Amino acid sequence: MKRKSQDCPSRLPDNSAVKQQQLPAYRLQLSANKILFGFFATGVFCLGVGVILLLSAKTIKEVEINYTEKCANCAKLRENAANFDKECNCSIPFVLPETMKGNVYMYYKLYGFYQNLYRYILSRSNSQLVGTDVKDVRNCAPFKTSHNGIPIAPCGAIANSMFNDTIILSYNLNSSIHIKVPMIRSGITWWTDKYVKFQNPSFQNLSSAFAGTTKPPNWPKPAYELDEEDPGNNGFINDDFIVWMRTAAFPTFKKLYRRLHRIEHFTEGLPAGSYSFNITYNFPVNRFQGEKAVVLSTLTWSGGSSLFLGLAYMVTGAVTWLAFFSMLAVHLRLRERKMFFLQQ
Amino acid sequence: MFCSKKKSLEVERIVKANDREYNEKYQYTDNRIHTCKYNILTFLPINLFEQFQRVANVYFLFLLILQLIPEISSLTWFTTIVPLVLVVTMTAVKDATDDYFRHKSDNQVNNRQSEVLIDSKLQNEKWMNVKVGDIIKLENNQFVAADLLLLSSSEPHGLCYIETAELDGETNLKVRHALSVTSELGADISRLAKFDGIVVCEAPNNKLDKFTGVLSWKGSEHSLNNEKIILRGCVLRNTSWCFGMVIFAGPDTKLMQNSGKTKFKRTSIDRLMNTLVLWIFGFLICLGIILAIGNSIWENQVGDQFRTFLFWNEGEKNSVFSGFLTFWSYIIILNTVVPISLYVSVEVIRLGHSYFINWDRKMYYSGKATPAQARTTTLNEELGQIEYVFSDKTGTLTENIMTFKKCSINGRIYGEVHDVLGQKTDMTKKKEAVGFSVSPQDDSTFPFFDHHLMESIKMGDPKVHEFLRLLALCHTVMSEENSAGELIYQVQSPDEGALVTAAKNLGFIFKSRTPETITIEELGTLVTYQLLAFLDFNNFRKRMSVIVRNPEGQIKLYSKGADTILFERLHPSNEDLLTLTSDHLSEFAGEGLRTLAIAYRDLDDKYFKEWHKMLEDANAAVDERDERIAGLYEEIERDLMLLGATAVEDKLQEGVIETVTSLSLANIKIWVLTGDKQETAINIGYACNMLTDDMNDVFIIAGNTAVEVREELRKAKENLFGQNRSFSNGHVVFEKKQPLELDSVVEETVTGDYALIINGHSLTVYDQWFITLFNIVYTSLPVLAMGIFDQDVNDQNSMDCPQLYKPGQLNLLFNKHKFFICVAHGIYTSLALFFIPYGAFYNVAGEDGQHIADYQSFAVTMATSLVIVVSVQIALDTSYWTIINHVFVWGSIATYFSILLTMHSNGLFGIFPRQFPFVGNARHSLTQKCIWLVILLTIVASVMPVVAFRFLKVDLFPTLSDQIRQWQKAQKKARPLRSRKPQTRRSSSRRSGYAFAHQEGYGELITSGKNMRAKYPPPTSGLEKTLYNSTSWIENLCKKTTDTVSSFSQDKTVKL
Lengths: 344, 1056
Hints:
The complex is a heterodimer. Chain A is of the alpha+beta class. Chain A has 10 helices and 12 strands.
């Protein structure tokens, strides 16, 4: 027997720490005091963050103007699809009581538009949008091709339903002088979207790149004519188009439209005073009983945060503290009993 | 390949010895065995077929098919095919490795060498080439290659001894004997080569203890039974050679017929898991229906107005149909709710545990250089839930080594172990000096140290001499001298071996016997006793006696047996001695020793002659022969003079008492299965603390059939409930009924064995998989809430691994109650995970003013929170942080982020713009402060309630393990399990320690002289007598030890 055990020493399992489950280990023992302290500290932290968030949210200046009803005549016109080529303008005056300091951002906001619909989200062709194959319309149902079978570019339900109102903000210095507030349309998209995800087909001439395709049915103009002022902003890399193509998670959403160009009168931001939105009303919302609005907003360190996050932090902090106090009470009351157990 | 498939069902087997051509026409299988399942070609189809019989795989396949329907498909096909392929591949690799090892072991077995008689010559042949009808030669300690008909052997009368440990786990030797006509063939190769007998027998079957057949040879027929058959898997023992003819080969052998398909064992957790998975599946269906109805309503109310932007697809122009399709889509999306991957994780965890078991040095047995081996990975967690341990007795509880420990001679105890160590060693030295001079054949390993006995022997105390003489005379041991001149005893029962060896070491050496004489060496003088009668042992007499005439002419009856029996038969003058001896016996019994009482009687010549005549008459009688003999035995075995008692220790395996005690403390009931007699079983029960004196009533249940036993058990139970409601704590020693039945239990026992070992070492409970379920619930329910959200959660499986490395966990139980808590927790977490980001993202812009609440950013935020929440949860559940835990917990988070960044990278998008539309998302979202604030809040909100809940639970309702942990913390170091020393129960018990592993029939064997070598003079007078019933002895001998089923159950109150 002894010889045998010498013959096969290999059968003795290795004495490594892993195999013997003897790795140096830290035994996580959360003592009552540690847990209670943890709760207390978490409460303090949450309340602190909540207060900061709420205070900074308060500094945000925001103006929202819902123009669904205000441009009722235009809305009516758009209800009839036959009037798609008729232009309809609408001017909405408003007064800014306080200066909006710093960067000011202009958004359009839609209510009740289900950009998060499952079939809607899928109805796009990324390989078309990245310019590799402009005729690739797979997944684009129900907007793959026109009636005569020509592939649509950009295809799909998302592209077809693109928001196409134009909004111009003018500053009314006085009753006679209306200054068009300078706005930048660049920098409203993600860098990766603009330079990676969306690319025009590589052709000398943009219109020939789109040859063999047709425009989406709801669009008045083909993709390569989206921006008449800036030839570099046409086709799939049009900023407004890219912004629209980044689908929203909720049926109510606001998307960045323009940024304030801080020059001349507007170096400090938007001064208080009277303004007006001049809107070319193209996008029909009455058909799905939606609404649309235009929003001007400033930002804070955490972006354009709403009150929710701050409140949620406050509530969490308060609940944590409540839990802390009740746990403390329970623990103190039971301490005696515990000592008894320990002695057992 | 399908080696075991037969063309037609075999009804009867006809085999002709030494005639391969003749046997070939029946196309019997050869001796090659295949336990492997596949070969290279068949592996893929068979393995896939097997794998797709599993529910989990079928489920995945079903999902895959659903996803191929474009109207329904809601996830890309690779979300399903990736895990499916992963699981199937992993299983296939595991199966392939298993099968590779099976191939290897098959090869090894098939290539074993054996000597086969081919062309009148003994040739070495591989096992696999042995054919039915071949005659093969076996040598001592060789494995038997196939099921053989024993033809002849080196032992007289064609006897041979086999060990059947591989077949039924029994280590004691069994006797097989050849037909007398064939045993004459001996080792004569030329005659064996001419042997052309034809065996007609039953078709291959799995009954290990049955064989029926007929051998036709030289015009006469001889019936064959199991006693002539040596089965594959046995080992030849104490027999230098034997010849056998192959009857069944390879897969037809009884061993292989028994090793059928291993049944997949399900643990109770598996069953619970299956139930829960079914519930979850039902839950999923319900959810699907609810969501589909919701979809129909939405499509009806809102979706219709939205039609401008999103036409109906062709063929789904109404909302009800849309709802129907949505149902299937949701089934696909929410498929992760059904924790199918749980099975895989559990499998992996079990595998890990079994490796830890195999690696554990604490479970390494250096004596046999054997590490612990987990033979199945499916039952690991059951080890933490064992309620009953079924144990074999011999070999598991005991070492099957008997040692002569003590004796009481004429009212004096010898062999008492003294407490003072120095004194004891002193005595040992003395004993050696004395012992050698007295007995030249002293066995140096003999552990009996008492120089008082030596002195008594030297002084010539007549009682002591008589006592030892009796031990040397009254037994069934056969002696043999090997080439070196050493005496070798062939013992039939280890008890007798111990007694005879003890006598030998004390100077009364049993030298040899013939059917009529016994020669012993008494302190150096050879004395030959005439053996006049042998009053054999049986289970009712519980004693055996020999009547001998010593050289002086005195006739003496020497008897040994159960104290209870012998004490009734003593001469009245023995009363004082009886009291004293019976006290000693109680003491021995209290120490768990097996006792025998020893007595003798002087007979006068005339009386004996009369008696002997009557015995011969009785032997010749046709009617009531047995009863008459029994009556005569009773008649002569009376008025005995008590000499004393012996105490033999059935040596327990190391640590048995401690283990049994721990098991009882763990409230684990032990059933011992044994082929031993009731007395032995009870004795062992006491010896290893399974039964203790404070148990008042031992219920003995004796019944021959299952019905009887059940009935008696029921009665005993009623009885118990009347007195004491702690029946559940009872240990039961259950005696083996049928060998087959034991076989079916053996498999269980293998598991039991290592459970025994594990529990002997630590009371660790492996229940970590419970958290795995948690994990799955965590990762799936948020998906449920989110609905559409999918890709980013797939890498969660990496989380399952940390559980593997948490040995310190104790108290997590898995039951339906816990499960619902988990579900509630899961729902809460998923709500937090969804609604906090929802509220925070609503109407919010990013730091650069950009739109932030897009679907992709939302998805990334939730996925990140989810991964971190799950990791924190796991971290909280990990109480034992090793480097591996750190690697896995931090590693899984790191992996998540690296995979996230990779999937959202420009490069991947450039290559597959279709599959990776999330390009740039991680970079954009994870640089936003407010997203991190959202993630942080989500974590706090999800984790804090759990911590609070646990804190309160530990505080308000501490479990035992909580207390132990606190206690451990207070102690700062773990204390070893208190080992319980076997308690010495001094004479408190009045029970008998009688236990004698002896079988009936050996007396006859001895007096017939059948098992004696030719060098002894052939018996004369005794032969006629025994030829008369020459078949009966071997039948008795080979008869199954106990056909009576008796068991006793016992209530036991365990003090915790």
